[in-house]
Amino acid sequence: MNKVVLVTGANSGIGLALCERLLSQDTEGLQLCLACRNMGRAQAARSALLTSHPTAQVALLQMDTSSISSVISAAQEIKLRYNRLDYLYLNAGIMPNPQFDLKGFFKGLFSSKIITMFATGEGILTQKDGVTSDGLREIFATNLFGHFLLIRELEPVLCHEGRPSQLIWTSSSNAHRSAFNLEDIQHQRGTQPYSSSKYASDLLSLALNTHYNKQGLYSSVICPGFVMTSLTYGILPSFPAFLWTLLIPLFWLIRIFTNTFTLTPYNGAEALVWLFKQKPESLDPTVKYQSLTSGLGNNYTQARKMDIDLETSKALYEKLLQLESEVRKKLKRKVK
Ligand SMILES: NC(=O)C1=CN([C@@H]2O[C@H](COP(=O)(O)OP(=O)(O)OC[C@H]3O[C@@H](n4cnc5c(N)ncnc54)[C@H](OP(=O)(O)O)[C@@H]3O)[C@@H](O)[C@H]2O)C=CC1
Ligand SMILES: CC(C)CCC[C@@H](C)[C@H]1CC[C@H]2C3=C(CC[C@]12C)[C@@]1(C)CCC(=O)C[C@@H]1CC3
Fold first, then answer.
1. For residue 108, what are the contacts with CB-CB under 8 A and spacing of at least 6?
2. Which residue has the higher pLDDT, 142 or 236?
3. DSSP strand pairing (165-170 vs 299-305)
4. pLDDT (mean) for 129-147
5. At 332, which helix (H) or strand (E)?
6. What span, in angstroms and rounded, lies between the C-alpha atoms of 312 and 118?
7. Residue 111: DSSP 8-state
8. Where, by residue number, does the polypeptide cross the bilayer (predicted)?
9. Mean pLDDT over residues 244-261, rounded?
């Protein structure tokens, strides 16, 4: 039976590289669905995939993870098209208006935290957030809440005893506990909404395992490392994309000290591809699977314990359920 794989944010970067790598492994046995916000870019991605794999089954689906109504109608469409989903890659993500703290960077450069700084970007980045038309914080809605709602909507095609399904989150090494506050899950008050949303996805994955494992649904998180994509090009805004390429020799050098500099979307997708091949029952819900690239350019996946606890994950889950019920009520009122 063909495996059905849905990838959010599949039209560029790590998501597109994942699709390419999955098709290279098994062109005939997969039904790929690219769930994208921008359909122009989605068409281009589909054409590129079909050029290298002409017999592949690649479908497109319009979905904006930051919009409640878009997620709900996309989920309806998925349920019409497929009886079941084997893999749901929750990959779409944004880090808008990142501010690079040059002072923090130089401070970190001459401190014992230099390796951590290059591995996680901690201490040198802040982000500016916006508000969606549903009244939610944009980064929270795009990276976390839209995906949460999607999972909830897709329960009937994801939960099948006897044949497990997998949820796979593209998290980050930039996810850290200090950026997250249970009393402010949307991060309305801080300057690190991206880090907060990624830490929340780590917590949520654990909670999803607690809730759904009995129903045959498993959740894991990965970190792709530092990858040069449109998401990271925004960090040095006055730097055109091609100038980033000039930094590549320096980045290769840094890679000798920190194997988290995976740099290309192909390398960054390593842990996503690795998880595709694992039995979900054998995975550890408390670790993050990390894509790593050695100084010699070899890719591998390593499990690293996450700084999360069951109690906080359950509390976050409850808050997300509560928010879900509020936004559904609002949506009903709007429709009336
Ligand atoms: N690059 C890196 O170093 C790292 C990236 N990550 C994570 O990897 C994931 C992929 O990012 P990456 O490949 O780097 O960056 P890209 O910008 O190349 O890819 C992001 C993808 O998400 C999509 N997307 C953004 N907003 C929405 C939305 N509202 N609805 C639907 N799709 C949306 C984009 O589509 P569109 O064309 O419509 O904008 C695009 O396809 C993200 O979750 C990111 O946080 C994690 C750690 C490091
Ligand atoms: C010579 C300098 C101009 C080099 C600057 C390097 C930094 C721009 C990068 C070092 C570590 C990187 C990193 C990220 C962004 C770019 C760096 C800060 C992320 C925060 C991007 C988004 C993520 O999810 C995690 C990444 C961790 C590492």
1. 114, 117, 123, 124
2. 142
3. unpaired
4. 97
5. helix 310-335
6. 28
7. S
8. 241-258
9. 89
Token pair recorded at residue 334: 């709007």
DSSP 227: B
State the Cα–Cα distance between residues 91 and 9, nearest whole angstrom.
Answer: 6
Domain around 51: 3-335
- Token couple for 161: 């005893």
For the chain, first and last CA: distance in Å? Answer: 42
pTM: 0.97
pLDDT by residue (tens digit) across 166-176? Answer: 999 999 999 99
Q: Say which amino acid occupies 54.
A: P
The Å distance, Cα 278 to ligand 1 centre, comes to 24
Looking at the chain, the whole-number percentage of residues with pLDDT higher than 70 is 99
Q: Are 23 and 34 in contact (CB under 8 A)?
A: no
Tell me, what's the pLDDT at 238? 66
With a 6 Å cutoff on the Cβ, whether 171 touches ligand 2 is no
Q: Cα torsion for 261, 265, 266, 272, to the nearest 10°?
A: 90
Q: How far is CA 50 from CA 53, 59, 135, 267, in A?
A: 5, 11, 38, 21
The CATH number linked to 307 is 3.40.50.720
Residues 87, 80: contact at Cβ < 8 Å? no
- Using alpha carbons, select from 205, 170, 171, 166 the residue that is nearest to residue 4: 166
Mean of per-residue pLDDT scores for the chain? 94
What's the rounded Cα separation, in Å, for the pair 171 and 227?
13
Distance CA 164, CA 86 (A): 7
CA distance linking residue 227 with residue 233, whole number of Å: 10
The domain total for the chain is: 1
| Max Cα-Cα span within the chain | 60
* Ligand 1 closest atom vs CA 232: 1
Which residue carries 């979900």 as its tokens?
280
pLDDT in the model for residue 181 = 97
**Angle at 292 (CA atoms; ends 287, 293), nearest 5 degrees:** 170
Quote the radius of gyration of the chain (alpha carbons, Å): 19
Q: For residue 272, which ligand has an atom nearest its CA?
A: 1
Catalytic one of 87, 89, 194, 212: 194
